Amino acid sequence: MEADRGPATGWAWAAPFVVLAACGGGGGGGGTSLSSSEPSPSISPAPGTSGAIPNPQTIAGKPRVGQIRASAGQVIENVHVSNPSGPCIVVTGVSDVTIRDSEIGPCGSDGDPNTQGIDIHDASNVRILRNVIHDVSTAVYAVGSAHPIIMDRNYVYNVRGPLPRGQMIQLNGVSGGTAGSKVTCNVSDAMPGVRYGVLHGDTAAGIEDHINLFSSPGLPDDRTEIAYNRLRGGSKVSTSGSGIMMGDGGGGHVDAHHNTIVGVVNAGAGIAGGSNISFNDNRIHLSRDDVVYVNVGVYVWGQAGAACSGHSVLNNRVWTMNSLGAQNPFWDGGNCGAVALSGNVFGDASLTPSIFDEVPSACR
Q1: Which of 217, 316, 212 is CA-nearest to residue 275?
Q2: Using CA atoms, how far apart are residues 100 and 87, in angstroms rounded to an integer?
Q3: Which of 85, 161, 166, 275 could form a disulfide with 252 if both were Cys (CB 3.0 to 4.6 A apart)?
Q4: How far is the CA of 245 from the CAs of 155, 282, 296, in angstroms?
Q5: Which of 176, 167, 258, 161 has its CA nearest to residue 213?
Q6: Which of 245, 258, 319 minimizes the C-alpha distance to 289?
Q7: Which DSSP string corresponds to 274-299?
Q8: pTM of the model as a whole
């Protein structure tokens, strides 16, 4: 259903280009720095597990099994789960499930949106740790569930879509619960090419938003954290994707920090509604030479009439050469109230696509 991804009008973030005069259209130089004495929020180490992020080579060789339907308290580990005709792992109506150290995929076939790697419904306290997930419509889809959903140190490639699927992770109607959700130290790589001995980008459509929070408010006293993720590549056919989409359909209480976003389609990151969302200390490099369409690095713009207030964009470094050949690192749509905006370097020409290969110390 389209409602899973957001109302059709929400696609307006593939908006007309807005070239900021402050960025000196066309880029060049060291960029424009918006600075002040206001500090970035304090950060903590990645909250998940220890251990290295796996890749397609290091995860290979696990015993093969078919679709798994999880039970309460179950630990699924050290297996290769695949399914020719649907989701690989289904978590429905249960809590306290751990999925770790496994290969997940292929799941179903290209063109079928109901072929998620991990499909979570009406569940809570689900932990997804150190897996490789590939050849899926969406790697992790959680709907109508409760926090926490923890996704830490996973490697994801060949996310196929089609819409409304097409995410590394989407939370749809996730709220309440006992602790904050965390999406940390993951690698989502949709850039075409052979890496670790396997073909990446082997999809008809491809990824839409690497990370999407739709109608999924975090907890006020334990906010949803999106941190230390490395996100690269975008859809081959869509012009409306992003690296990280927050406040989609409302929500809030989200901290997105220390993420690296390279070569995604349309927008590096967006705050599309909601309240009290921070996007701080991230790096974004987008170039029209890498993908089908580039619009803007970061935007704050309430969509489809969603309430929108209390957001911050602090201490980010952004290089965005859009499809018109101009620097367009940031846009404020003007309907979210005052946005805390300081310490950013917009048009940072020192950034290159190679930042994707830098592993955050918190994830080692």
Answers
A1: 217
A2: 17
A3: 275
A4: 19, 14, 13
A5: 167
A6: 319
A7: EEEEEEES-EEEEETTTSS-EEEEEE
A8: 0.89
